[in-house]
Design goal:
alpha/beta; Rossmann fold; two-stranded antiparallel ribbon; binds S-adenosylmethionine
Length: 288
């Protein structure tokens, strides 16, 4: 192998070599040029929402399917188990079926969970993986015990990948349930609940594996609240290693604002603020 300028061995790209794999994905890096749709940069311009199959995009607050697709292909292997502790309309679990990963989702709202089950069941499932949505509060230890049971039914004691896409505090009210993170009465209460979920995520995840946090910021009383960075810090304090702060373009996928673009622009110019055009897809690793 060649040496680079700091004396480290340089990988010989494109040559057959026993080291062209990692332990956490199915990527064959001797064919790395074939993965040109896999993002490796921190600016995520994903374009329009993928609306194929049962991905509909009518649930206010669901993420675009390209997010779990990117994360699953880079950080999981076929047949592994993915847990999403805020599964909503099941976007992650639909992608799990498309890509041959087992999926366990937790969703607080029974009606949303039921609708998501119907959508997930319509997704193609060529590898006949198992996907299950549990109704429960992800801050509650008893819910996590049920996730462990579901893992045990799949023959495992840990998840191979974790997704967290919590409410961005109160910007979208998801339900009237006081356990819903979108009903946390103030930011401290939101942080406390989020911390409980992160600690559960850490306990469920296999050491050495990856967690994706999808989150945006918010405005309160004319002040930009960096909810994303606050939640990132909670993950780091729980022992996760930060691997990426990816900035995802949300233009075209925002609700309500599209038609009022000029009005928001006018307000921003007048009042001295900037209109949100991004959210974050942060990636963390649980240390070995
Ligand atoms: C931003 S959405 C997730 C959307 C999901 N990624 C999708 O694509 O459909 C957040 C979800 O978390 C749920 N939720 C809020 N508090 C919860 C809690 N304590 N436990 C479990 N789910 C909760 C809400 O009902 C909502 O469906």
């Amino acid at each position: 192998m060649e040496q680079n300028e700091v004396g480290k061995a340089k990988p010989s790209l494109g040559q057959p070599h026993h080291d062209h794999r990692n332990t956490f994905s199915d990527l064959d890096l001797s064919r790395w040029k074939e993965y040109d749709d896999l993002l490796t940069g921190s600016l995520w311009l994903l374009g329009a929402r993928d609306k194929t199959g049962p991905h509909i995009g009518d649930y206010w607050g669901n993420f675009v399917p390209q997010i779990p697709n990117q994360i699953l292909r880079r950080f999981t292997r076929r047949g592994e188990i993915v847990v999403d502790l805020f599964s909503g309309m099941g976007t992650t679990l639909i992608e799990c079926r498309h890509l041959g990963r087992h999926g366990i989702g937790v969703e607080l709202s029974p009606s949303v969970a039921e609708q998501s089950r119907q959508r997930i069941a319509q997704a193609e499932n060529p590898d006949a993986v198992t996907t299950e949505v549990l109704v429960g509060d992800s801050t509650a230890p008893e819910t996590i015990a049920r996730v462990r049971e579901a893992l045990a039914n799949l023959g495992s004691d840990a998840a191979d990948c974790l997704f967290l896409h919590p409410p961005y505090h109160d910007i979208i009210p998801f339900s009237d349930d006081p356990r819903d993170l979108s009903n946390a009465p103030d930011r401290q209460a939101f942080h406390d609940k989020f911390r409980q979920v992160v600690e559960h995520a850490r306990d469920l995840l296999r050491p050495g594996r990856f967690m994706a946090l999808v989150i945006g910021d918010k405005y309160t009383r004319a002040e930009w609240i960096p909810l994303g960075f606050e939640c990132m810090q909670i993950c780091r304090e729980a022992g996760f290693q930060l691997k990426a702060i990816n900035v995802k373009d949300i233009q075209g996928n925002e609700r309500g604002k599209g038609k009022n673009e000029n009005l928001w622009r006018y307000r921003a110019l007048k009042a001295g603020f900037y209109v949100f055009k991004h959210e974050y897809v942060m990636v963390f690793r649980k240390p070995l």
